[in-house]
Amino acid sequence: MFYSLKKFFFGKPLDPLNPKIRQNIALITLLAWVGLGADPLSSSCYGPEEAYIALGANPELAFFIAIISIVTIFIISFGYNQVIALFPNGGGGYQVASKLLHPFLGLIAGTALIVDYALTIAISIASGTDAVFSFLPLKIAPFKLLVENVSVILLLALNLRGIKEAVQFLLPVFLGFVVTHVVLIIYGVFAHAEGLSVVVPHALETTHKLANSLGWVATIGLILHAYSLGAGTYTGLEAVSNNVQRLAEPRVKTGKRTMLCMAFSLSFMAGGIILLYLLWQVQPKPGMTLNAVVFEAILGPSKIGHLLLLIILLLEAGLLFVAANAGFASGPNVLASMALDNLVPNRFRHLSNRLVVQNGLFFYGFMALGILFLTMGRVSILVVLYSINVFITFSLSLLGISIYWLKHKKRKNWIWHFLLSSFACLITTSILCIVLFYKFKAGAWATLFITALLVFVCIFIRLHYQYVAKELAKLDRLLEQPLDQTSVEYLAPYAINPQLPTAAIFVNNLSVGMHTLLSILRLFPGQFKNFVFLSAGAVDAASFQGEQELEAMQGKVNHQLDYFVKYCRQYQIPAESYSAFGTDTMEQLKELSDIVQNKYPHVIFFATQLIFRHETLVTKFLHNQTPLLLQHYLHLHGRELMIMPMRI
Question: Which residues of 347-365 are buried (b: 16+ CB within 10 A; e: fewer)?
């Protein structure tokens, strides 16, 4: 019953060893544009408005904001095209900063993205819910936070089925938003086409007046201030670089096409909406966004106009929910990349049977729920916290690309790549400094504090894993037994009698496996006549990157098992091995134990558990408890498993 419900809600398990499975779950350009481009596109609902309002009594200057914004979008997009080309296995800003700058700067970029994607989910859900509740009676406003929490849980459940399935489900909302807004912008511009001829003259006239009264420095400062406050427009442009491994082959071309779609759609929306503000001379109205004001003016006061306005605003709200999904699509991949470098718990590199980073999805779901609870879903608070960390990653990534081209001057057209990435880095760093200056005291310090706290947590985790790896390496050198290759290669396998007492050993690395084997020989001399070695290879974020990585993982597991079998053979001990591969190593080991139990009725299973001098909840969380879980399963089925302690 439980399995049927799980299959119904989350889909049937996918086989990671199927060569065609990557093709089946990969995102083509359209789906990648929807799944990853919704975040930046949704910013056109509020980014241009923030910049326009910041100009105060000088809205004519918004023309310059529109031009600068469009140029910025394309410069950042072209800069991230280089990231996609250099890092086709994903990782984005984290990988760029780690590999091209310094691992510590990579850690800063990674933690900044972790916080940013959690805030993306929270602010998108909160903004979308606010938009929906603006059409509903005030008496149900107390239920807004509940609706936000339910929305997060529904998006989490949708993504547990797979990114592609989630994107396909949300596709109609995205396309509805794009089509309606493109039509409205084009119609709104042509309806006031006579105003196009005066937009530029008015902008220049206002600029000269301000320069004469305030000076050029103050005038440029006003424009840059408004430009920086609309910086939310550019958030999400990095999402493709974090998900290149999820794109359809050829990955790099698909990634670049997706970036081009994002750049054109976002620049058209952001620039077009600012142009509508100017042509229709909109003024803020209480309880309405500027988008709602200008669209209401375009559609008119008729009943059909009000109905169309309602549909358009609901599509804007819907797009914000799609944008929240972009956080679920990108965030877990950042965690997986950091887990591969032992900066976060290893469990974040594991895939579910639907081939998604399940633990990462749960992490972001709980983080988003926590943020919404602490802020009570208030967009005014979330806006202050948002759009800071992404510019930290922007700046570090583009700086890394700039340094890369300085070190590769022999490559064709390196100077143009260098100038483009350097200019983009200058822009994003300037925006970061201005945003920090204006938002720091308002609450941006909290975002930086949380990011810094995460950096220290990651450093602690890295140091712990390094200590364990160092100790295991010592044990590898101590316990590794030499093989007499000349005799082993020519010795025929010894015949195994399944009816004799058998020891089945779960192996996950050399020192642990050899410790278990030698302990059995020492504690039970002559007791066991057969030895069976079992190992399960995990198809995780590292091995699922491509066919070569998958084959390398399988080869490593089989080579390790082959070593133990040969070691027993040279001492005339009958031995064999079994291996299995999948996303859930526990399930694979359970299946192997069933196979061995059926063949060897007098088998006793053995495993080794690492014992730390100071055992805490942290060490239990950082390391899997596979031996204990196996013991529970085997004991439940009337089988015996003995755990050998191994002190670290």
Answer: bbbbbbbbbbbbbbbebbb
